[in-house]
C-alpha cells in the first residue's frame, strides 16, 4: 500500500493550507475574504491592509482587527525584535484611535509602527496627528499639462499638529501645518508648504520639479529648505526678531523675504 503524500511546505508569512482533491471554483475564489498580510520585502517589514474599495467583500474594522491579531499571534515569528513596520493602508479610512490600536498590537508583537502609506487625506492627517511618518499617495497618476510646470496636484493636506523629531510627511500637493515643524522632522510636498508656526525642520516644496512653489512660515528658521532642485540652509546668525517670511526661487537661487514684501519682490 503506497504511503500518503506529504503536505506541501511554505516559507512565506502566510499560514500553510491543505489542498483538497477538488479544484477550486473560480467563482468561489473571487468571493474569498480579503486578508491582512505581513511580509518582508526589500529589507522592510510591510503590513498590508485590504483595500476598502473591494466591495462587497471589504473588511469592516472589527474583521480587520481580528485578522491582524490572529496574524501577529499565529505561526512562527520571522521578524527581528523591535523591527520597524511600514503600514500600507491604501484607501482604507483610519482614525487616530485605530492607528494607535494597530501600533499597540504591533508593540505587543515586538514591532514598531514607523510609517503609514495611504491614498486618503483623512488617514494621512490622523497618522501625522498620532505621531507617525506618513506618505499620502495619489489615488491616480498625475496628469501632465501643456505647460511644463503645470500639473494636477492632490488636494491640500491640512495638519493641525506639531511635527516632532523623526516624523516625515510626504504629500503630492500643498501641505499646511497649523503648528510647529521641529528640528529632526521633515515635509516633502509637490506643492507649496505653509507653516502657521515655527519651521525649524527640513522641508522641500515643488518636489516633483516645480520651481514656482513657495515655502511660508510665521518663523522661518529651517535646518534646510529645498524648492525643486534648489537648496538653501538657515543663516549662521539667526534673526533677533522673527516675522512671517516666504522662501521662493529667484534668478539667483532661493531667496527669503518678509511676507509683507513678497508680492513686490516677486513681481520686480
Please characterize this protein's 3D structure:
This protein is of the alpha/beta class and 268 residues long. It has 2 domains: 24-137; 142-268, 3 Solenoid (Pectate Lyase C-like). It has helices at 26-30, 61-73, 96-108, 121-129, 259-267; strands spanning 37-41, 44-48, 83-90, 111-118, 133-136, 154-159, 168-171, 173-177, 186-189, 193-199, 202-205, 215-220, 224-227, 230-233, 245-250, 253-258. The strands form 2 sheets. The protein has a 10-stranded mixed sheet. The chain has a 6-stranded mixed sheet with strand order 6-8-10-12-15-16. It is elongated. The chain starts with 25 loop residues before the first helix and ends with a helix.
Structural key phrases:
single chain; 268 residues; alpha/beta; Pectate Lyase C-like; ten-stranded mixed β-sheet; six-stranded mixed β-sheet
Mean pLDDT: 81
Overall geometric form: elongated
Termini gap: 94 Å
Query: Uncertain spans, ≥5 residues at pLDDT below 50?
Result: 4-21, 26-31, 140-150
Total beta-strand segments:
16
Secondary-structure topology with pairs:
Elements: H1 26-30, E1 37-41, E2 44-48, H2 61-73, E3 83-90, H3 96-108, E4 111-118, H4 121-129, E5 133-136, E6 154-159, E7 168-171, E8 173-177, E9 186-189, E10 193-199, E11 202-205, E12 215-220, E13 224-227, E14 230-233, E15 245-250, E16 253-258, H5 259-267
Parallel strand pairs: 2-3, 3-4, 4-5, 5-7, 6-8, 7-9, 8-10, 9-11, 10-12, 11-13
Antiparallel strand pairs: 1-2, 12-15, 13-14, 15-16
